[in-house]
Amino acid sequence: MNRAPNEPLPTHVTTPLLTLITTRSLDEDYAHVASRKAAVGTERPERKGPRWTTVAAVLVLGLLTSVVVAQTSREAATHELSRAALGKQIGIERDRVASLQDEVASLVDANQATAARNATLENQLENLQAGVQRLGVLTGFTAVHGEGVRISVDNPESADSTTEIRDEDLATLVDGLWAAGAEAVSIDGERVNALGGIRNISRAVHVNGRPVTAPYLVVAIGDQRTLQARLLETSQGQEWFARVNGLSFRYTAQNVDDVEVPAAPLRALRHTSQMKRPGGRTGGEETAP
Question: 24 lies in a domain?
């Protein structure tokens, strides 16, 4: 193809290849669509009136929306009342819990005070019981056991009324054992104490008002290492052994590791009370408890 020297180049030559391809593709698409419209026709079918089903659906949807709104409003009011009632109940229960906590604290304090008083009373009771135990041992109204000495005393082989062991002889021996450090003494199982005593009734010896017979078993609780030796050092013990030698009493003694002395029998005490006699005078009257 011949072209004059000053003639410009054709458009498809100077246009970039990508732009040229895009333009030609669009032109072809437009032409294709235009040809289809021409074949089918460009006029749309005329719309008819609104359909009743659509109107009914819209009305139903509006009604449901109104019902939901009304129900939501009522439920909101109910929920608000429930929340208010629940809050009030929570406040009441909180106050009740606080009151119970205060009561528990008061009870704990009272319990601690009672425990302290009980501990004090227990200590006092233990002291009283220990005191009663000591008094029982001293007065003879509590049985005791421990180490000590067991002594057998008997009349001479050819004893008569002038050589038999009498109450004063046994009393001298018991007094010597007390002086030697004995804590408790018994004769034939009868505890010797201040209210009992040793007495002769005719030729029989009585301890605590009960008769005892020879050979007399004298039991004394005390330090077995020193009790017999200290008995010889006391004036009552020396007098006792003088009678043993002079009247030929049969006397044997042995140390024991554990021996028991029973409690003395309880005796009714007498006391004197003042009573007013006719004429304004007063006098004593013995009564027994």
Answer: yes
